[in-house]
Design a protein that fits this description.
With about 290 residues, the chain is an alpha/beta fold. The protein has helices at about 10-15, 20-25, 85-100, 140-150, 170-180, 195-200, 250-255, 260, 280-285; strands at about 5, 45-50, 55-60, 60, 65, 70, 80, 105, 130-140, 185-190, 215, 225-230, 240. A seven-stranded mixed β-sheet has the order 5-6-8-9-12-10-11.
């Protein structure tokens, strides 16, 4: 049975306590890591090891640059690898988007060739089960590259102040995230609280259970972060605690839209925490040449 760990599953009180550490991580955006220097996946069958914030992946597959309904952007980062289940998820999302029209989903970072810690941008995305999907749609692969490559992120879907969605948010974006949340392989999705609020208010589906998977988190206003559950046959994959409770449109969401959450103190952390010890099996994955 997959082991259990808590990552991105914080309650409001604990989340507030770690805000200082998050600001520190942002300030130290570039960190040396041997995993970022590896150019290709390891040999052997696909194997998810450890958790999303302290793990790796053996035998990862590479996401094609384009496919029906999607385009993979910022390929120069070499972060387009994942477990086959993650690639199938992206392909499913692309086909769903293709059925809605000609515009393309822009797929951001998955994992590095062997997972592990990245030098910038993410603390998670380490074991081949995470992917970022941008809310802005592209007219073509070339248009996506012009918009995203070596440029800042596209427009936010959230108004200044963080309490409501902006003019860029619309049915296409709502449909995109609902499609992802209804996918059977998805464990949870991280998104700005204002977007979660819009989904809660405007979903008229009789089945709203998919909203439970939508978890508020800081930033995530121009993209959403999808995390799959541990695939079967991966005993060394560490699962997050199972989601509990209702659809999450009540008191918990209200906290995320409060001054306490939107204007957190920056005085929390004064020193970086030591890196956790990676699973022993990851050493072999890193050394496999």
């Amino acid at each position: 049975m997959a082991r259990i760990t808590q990552v991105h599953a914080f309650g409001p009180a604990l989340a507030f306590c770690i805000v200082g550490a998050l600001f520190l991580v942002a300030a130290q955006n570039v960190q040396a890591t041997p995993w970022a220097a590896v150019a290709a996946p390891s040999s052997g069958p696909p194997e998810v090891i450890g958790g999303v914030s302290n793990g790796c992946i053996g035998g990862a597959d590479a996401l094609p640059e384009t496919g029906p309904g999607y385009v993979s952007i910022r390929r120069y980062r070499n972060r387009y690898y994942g477990h086959p289940a993650l690639l199938r998820f992206v392909e499913d999302m692309g086909r769903a988007q293709q059925s809605r029209g000609e515009r393309l989903i822009m797929i951001g970072d998955l994992s590095q060739p062997r997972g592990g810690r990245m030098s910038s941008s993410h603390r998670s995305h380490q074991n081949g089960l995470d992917v970022d999907i941008w809310f802005t749609l592209a007219d073509s692969p070339a248009a996506a590259r012009r918009l995203m490559d070596n440029r800042s992120d596209p427009q936010s879907m959230v108004q200044a102040g963080g309490r409501s969605v902006g003019a860029a948010w619309g049915p296409a974006q709502a449909s995109l995230i609902e499609t992802a949340a209804r996918h059977p392989g998805v464990d949870r999705i991280f998104v700005n609280a204002a977007i979660k609020q819009a989904l809660c208010r405007n979903s008229d589906s009789a089945d709203r259970d998919w909203l439970r998977k939508i978890r508020p988190w800081w930033s995530h206003d121009a993209h959403f972060h999808v995390r799959l559950r541990c695939p079967a046959g991966n005993p060394d994959c560490e699962s997050q605690a199972a989601l509990t409770g209702d659809e999450g449109c009540g008191a918990d969401l209200a906290w995320w839209l409060s001054d306490e959450a939107l204007k957190p103190s920056k005085g929390g952390g004064s020193a970086a925490k030591p890196e956790p010890r990676m699973p022993q099996a990851c050493s072999a994955i890193l050394r496999d040449f």
